[in-house]
Amino acid sequence: MKGRVLIIAGSDSGGGAGIQADIKTVTALGGYAATAVTAVTVQNTLGVFGVHAIPLDIVREQIRVVMEDIGADALKTGMLGTIETVETVAEAIDAYARGVPLVVDPVMIAKGGHPLLEAAAQDTVRTLMLPRAALVTPNAPEAEALTGLQVHDLDGQKRAAEKLLALGARAALVKGGHVEGAVVRDVLAAADGMHVFESLRIETRATHGTGCTLASAIAAKLAQGAPLTEAVPAAREYLMEAIRRAPGFGAGHGPLDHGWTTRERG
Asked: Is residue 266's pLDDT more than 80?
């Protein structure tokens, strides 16, 4: 087991996204996952039926005790939900995890359409989380919300990625799953330039938790010492295979097969 990842995110009772997907992903890639839960959601493949925020002092204390005892080689944030939670997490990262690479997944809307970040908190994510991010991983709608730019094609992805760097992120991965076309393109903008990763779109309803899974897979690879240009394609490969092997559970947006690597090793 190599690579400690502290995941700061919400819980998904259906197990397909959020903390549950994050833990499965990091474990499947040979890392060690610790967590600071920001919210408990009531959800399954059909949607989100309730969101219950964790008290701010508990969020902060989870981060503190993990970092003071276990430590972390990478951090990953997911659902933060409110302005106050974003502020608390940013302060706790500064206090207890300064210098640890941070992957920010700016979770805004659940796959079924339920908002997971208050509209008023988008600016707080922009001003507090982006400058702390070693990598930010928005999908096209999230990139539009963070940058104010339209993201309907590859050029839009590239412009948004450049804008995210200008806003303070050290690297940005603007995902193309919401961009129409038979080929999915993810654009990585980093200090060494622009990289475009391509894969054929898989026609499936098993798309629940794809964003959480990709960000956590990248965090796991970074925690294990991989450079970003290796971590991103490796994480994409893991995600695509997890989609292909999806178990078909639920009547809505189904979960992935996060554990496929363990069976491959076995």
From this structure: no
